[in-house]
Design a protein that fits this description.
By secondary structure, the chain is an alpha/beta fold. It is built from 23 helices and 21 strands. Among the domains are: 87 residues, OB fold (Dihydrolipoamide Acetyltransferase, E2P) (Beta Barrel); 190 residues, P-loop containing nucleotide triphosphate hydrolases (Rossmann fold); 157 residues, Rossmann fold. A hairpin with a 4-residue loop joins strand 6 and strand 7. Helix 6 crosses helix 23 and helix 17 runs antiparallel to helix 19. Keywords: ATP-binding, DNA damage, DNA recombination, DNA repair, DNA-binding, Helicase, Hydrolase, Isomerase, Nucleotide-binding.
Length: 680
């Protein structure tokens, strides 16, 4: 079968060409036909009168003058002709192509593509061919190549591959779905991607492969959910509803509508005999801790134990204090376990956990040490889940057999990315802020305004408040002209002249030193804290009301919003000042967006729009699949459709038994998502 044959079995592809293709990840004929272009050049003829300045344009015209050639330096030349295109007499300029002088003669027709200079009435030619434009050349595919491979060469190879496999291409998409969405078959779609007839051909071919990629991915995600539910019986937690209502009524605030909705989702799932695997995302201050407390208390009234894992000691301590205030009056026995817990206290906690004499343990990664055992672990909550590796989260889950699992994050994730990156989870969203919470006033000003900003900050400190100053770097960098934390720290100390205590924190400090600085600030020993982004997650200092973010244009919107969330956590009015001199329109748009809204989800959508899905989570742990054609941002409607279809298919008998779904089933089986090892 041609699809599985090596590429050098095709005529015209030798050993050297096969090596070059292998560098592109192409080994078989099937790989070659599925090597899609990353864009299509629009080569349709355009009227120059309607073409904007500096836009790429293709025109057909008659040569009206002898070519003139000018040389400047070794091997640098500029060839120029006059070209009559419709009613426009323009100059066509060819750089370093003086050898064309003898091919371009007055009266001949040529087709040229290049950048249009409206003021000079000139086209700087990037490609040209003799004669009028041929049909079928309107949309030219452009492939991502390396190692000296040319676009024309790869097109020739792909043409040979498509001709070879013609008639033997199995279509992985069932006829039912192709018909429902009016999608082209596999052969027609491949032609449309590689050798399109027109704009419609490209559009429908791309539409088909976008949906196919999303459907394949969502089928895997839904299959993981199905396997998890069937593999682990889970823990049925029949909580005491009356006691739970009394606890909720005792909280010092009224739950928001969003909190009530999410609590109902969690409680319904706790009672089911399948393991919960849910992501709870909510903006800073949206009340995730209260939801976690209610879910933990529900599990405890059902006779189970709960565990909450936080990424830092100080965050674990804050959670422990808050939960103790709320839960201990109801007889809940709580313990805090972290790296600094003394050996004797640790031994007592471990014994009580194993005996079931502790209902709720809160801690750091110390919770996943081998000697930590539970009598009956029913619910595991991981705060800021992205800060822990998959293996760390898995170890904690396995300590209780099949406990329900809730991951929490304060990073608002746009729905399209949540569906994609966390597709195997159920997602709950807290999209409403508690009543009475004051929005943080945000201002954007130039860096030179720092003295005026410090003066305003001084007034806040004088009133007994505290302030953060955030910088992107620790030490001076030759590459980036940005204010660093060490310099900023010295500048602020000199400005205040000993009137206020100023601290410094950055990523190169030993973890114990970082904890000590953060603790001193949170306890009021420091008036101002100069820091890099290590303060981004979870720390609660209600007295901090002022934040300055230096070189704010260096941060993405999501990170700026996370940083801003460190203030505005108490009863006092809070402020955030962005010091930034953005050089680009996108940079200016970011700063403007920050001053216009404090809604994390709106900012996350904007950030996604400006940066794209690949950069949203960061390169190291994106969690994003690498789609060839599909884009979760721009193709979000297709993503939603594919998710719904995948849920329906995975739940149906026909999908698992019908011959028309065999290829889609094979995709799932080959991915390994149905194996026991994949379940985490």
């Amino acid at each position: 079968m041609w699809l599985t044959e090596p590429v050098n079995s095709l005529k015209g592809i030798g050993k050297e060409a096969a090596k070059s293709l292998e560098n592109l990840g192409v080994r078989t004929v099937g790989d070659l036909v599925m090597m899609f272009p990353y864009r299509h050049e629009d080569n349709r003829l355009k009227d120059l009168a309607e073409t904007p300045h500096e836009e790429r344009v293709t025109i057909e015209g008659r040569v009206e003058s002898e070519p003139s050639v000018f040389f400047s330096g070794k091997n640098r030349s500029r060839l120029q002709i006059r070209l009559l295109a419709g009613h426009h007499l323009v100059k066509a300029v060819f750089f370093n192509q003086h050898y064309l002088k003898h091919r371009l003669t007055p009266g001949m027709t040529v087709t040229v593509t290049g950048k249009w200079d409206r003021g000079r009435q000139t086209i700087n030619v990037s490609s040209f061919k003799e004669g009028p434009k041929q049909t079928g050349e309107d949309f030219e595919p452009v492939y991502s190549l390396k190692g000296g491979m040319h676009q024309k060469t790869i097109r020739r190879y792909i043409r040979a591959a498509l001709d070879a496999v013609s008639g033997e291409l199995p279509d992985p998409m069932p006829a039912e779905l192709l018909e429902q969405y009016k999608l082209p078959g596999i052969a027609e779609a491949l032609e449309g991607m590689h050798f399109p007839r027109d704009a419609e051909h490209v559009k429908h071919a791309r539409r088909r492969f976008v949906y196919e990629e999303f459907l394949g991915y969502q089928l895997k995600m839904q299959a993981i959910k199905k396997v998890r539910k069937e593999a682990g019986k889970g823990t049925e937690l029949h909580y005491d509803l009356d006691r739970l209502k009394v606890f909720i009524d005792s909280l010092p605030f009224e739950l928001t509508g969003a909190q009530k909705r999410v609590v109902n989702e969690l409680c319904a799932e706790l009672k089911e005999p399948v393991r919960m695997n849910r992501l709870l995302q909510g903006d800073v201050g949206s009340g995730k801790t209260a939801v976690a407390a209610i879910a933990l208390y529900a599990a405890i009234t059902a006779g189970a134990q709960g565990a909450l894992m936080a990424p830092t000691e100080i965050l674990a301590e804050q959670h422990a204090q808050t939960l103790a205030d709320w839960l201990e009056p109801f007889g809940v026995r709580i313990a805090l376990l972290s790296g600094s817990t003394k050996a004797k206290a640790r031994r007592i906690i471990l014994e009580k956990l194993a005996e079931g004499e502790i209902d709720l343990v809160i801690g750091t990664h110390a919770l996943i040490q081998p000697d930590v055992n539970f009598k009956k672990l029913g619910l595991v909550i991981t705060d800021e889940q992205h800060r822990f590796g998959v293996q760390q989260r898995r170890i904690l889950k396995e300590k209780g057999g099949d406990p329900d699992v809730l991951f929490m994050t304060a990073t608002p994730i746009p729905r399209t990315l949540a569906i994609t990156a966390f597709g195997e989870m159920d997602v709950s969203i807290l999209d409403e802020m508690p009543a009475g919470r004051q929005p943080i006033e945000t201002y954007w000003t130039k860096r030179e305004a720092l003295p005026a900003v410090l003066k305003r900050m001084g007034r806040e400190l004088q009133e007994g408040r505290q302030a953060y100053v955030i910088c992107p770097l620790i030490e001076e960098s030759d590459k980036l002209d940005v204010q660093n934390a060490v310099d900023m720290y010295e500048q602020i100390r000199q400005y205040f002249g000993g009137r206020f205590n100023v601290g410094l924190m950055h990523g190169r400090l030993h973890p114990d030193d970082k904890e000590a600085v953060m603790r001193e600030f949170s306890e009021g020993g420091l008036h101002a804290l100069v820091s890099t982004t290590v303060v981004e997650v979870g720390v609660n200092v209600p007295n901090a009301t002022f934040m300055v973010i230096s070189d704010a244009e260096r941060f993405g919107l999501a990170q700026l919003h996370q940083l801003r969330g460190r203030v505005g956590r108490g009863a006092h009015k809070s402020y955030c000042v962005l010091l930034a001199d953005p050089k680009t329109e996108i940079g200016k748009e970011r700063m403007q967006s920050m001053t216009e809204t404090t809604d994390g989800f709106r900012l996350a959508e904007k950030d996604l729009e400006l940066r794209g899905p690949g950069d949203f989570f960061g390169k190291r742990q994106s969690g994003m699949p690498d789609f060839k054609v599909a884009d979760p941002v721009h193709d979000y409607r297709a993503l939603e459709t594919a998710r719904r279809d995948a849920e329906r298919l995975i739940a149906s008998e026909a999908f698992w038994n019908g011959p028309e779904y065999e290829t889609l089933r094979t995709v799932i089986e080959q991915s390994g998502v149905l194996s026991d090892e994949r379940i985490d």
